[in-house]
């Protein structure tokens, strides 16, 4: 579980599938109001307070993004409950004094996103993908001093999808951000056909 502060009232938590498995939670359970999910949320808020001093008292808006092959990203924002009535609210009591008033939004992301420490790793990964015939249309970003390759493998057959993930994992690591964050805070270097472009120029 990794927690980082986005601003004074917003944090991002990255849960790997192992984090969920250790707690006996399936990905689909995050959509349901069950005690295990409540316990996980309490644990996340405790850790956010310990690591970042993020006090989760009061109304909270919680967005959960499922990332294929990587895990889940949970965005917690203070003071936003009631902004969107169509979202379902759930309440959770950690103890008698603290009440979390939550508004939960679930989103499924089909984007495969991997981070690389330096450009040489990006080049090596792209050359391997190209050799394997996996030069799917991709985008290259820079964000937080790392290079990010993003792919939208919609309609890609399972074997090719798994091969894409396996090759990316050899050179990079699964990123815990969404493309919405990259579009807003990152910089697009190659907007499309990133693997092909890199192989042609490097």
Q: Kindly report the average pLDDT value.
A: 80
- Output the structural class: alpha+beta
Q: Strand-and-helix sequence, N→C?
A: EEHHEEEEEHEEHEHEH
User: Sheet with the most strands?
Assistant: 6 strands, mixed
Poorly predicted regions are 81-101
Spatial separation of the terminal alpha carbons:
36 Å
| Strand portion | 25-35%
Summed up, the helix count is 6
Output the strand order for the largest sheet. 1-2-4-3-6-5
Global Rg: 19 Å
Any idea what the shape is? globular
Tally of structural domains: 2
The strand count comes to 11
Helix content: 25-40%
InterPro entries: MecA_C_sf, Neg-reg_MecA
Organism: Paenibacillus methanolicus
Family: Belongs to the MecA family.
Pfam families: MecA
Explain what this protein looks like in three dimensions.
By secondary structure, the protein is an alpha+beta fold. Helices cover 33% and strands 35% of the residues. The strands form 2 sheets. It has a 6-stranded mixed beta sheet with strand order 1-2-4-3-6-5. It has a 5-stranded antiparallel beta sheet with strand order 10-7-9-8-11, with helices on both faces. α3 packs antiparallel against α4. The longest helix is centred in the first third of the chain and has 18 residues, at 35-52.
